[in-house]
């Protein structure tokens, strides 16, 4: 259960960043680490690939410093899911954290 919730948060976080720029697994691992998540390549890469299978991300291969790297960009569907999730997250935050205004 906890793992599913965390994967959900990570997925949203990935969508958020992929909506700003093309991301890589390495970038997301560092980014999530900064937010206090411990993520291994064994978690992040299957998650990215799964999100691509779901049509939320689209990957392209690029050459960087002579190495092939896979970058991910958000799709139209991903943007829809992100926008929808933002509303839900906002509602949820207001409810579980309380409206402190
Ligand atoms: Zn972030």
TrEMBL record:
Residue ranges the record marks as coiled coil: none
InterPro entries on file: Metal_resp_DNA-bind_regulator, Tscrpt_reg_PadR_N, WH-like_DNA-bd_sf, WH_DNA-bd_sf
Residue ranges of domain Transcription regulator PadR N-terminal in the record: 14-84
Organism superkingdom: Archaea
Species, as recorded: Thermococcus sibiricus
Gene3D superfamilies: Winged helix-like DNA-binding domain superfamily/Winged helix DNA-binding domain
Pfam families named among the record's database cross-references: PadR
UniProt protein name: Transcriptional regulator, padR-like family
């Amino acid at each position: 259960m906890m793992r599913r919730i965390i994967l959900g948060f990570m997925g949203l976080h990935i969508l958020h960043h992929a909506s700003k720029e093309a991301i890589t697994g390495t970038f997301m691992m560092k980014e999530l680490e900064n937010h206090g998540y411990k993520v291994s390549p064994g978690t992040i890469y299957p998650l990215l690939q799964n999100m691509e299978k779901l049509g939320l991300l689209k990957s392209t291969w690029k050459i960087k410093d002579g190495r092939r790297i896979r970058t991910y960009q958000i799709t139209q569907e991903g943007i829809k899911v992100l926008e929808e999730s933002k509303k839900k997250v906002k509602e949820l935050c207001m409810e579980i954290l309380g409206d402190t205004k």
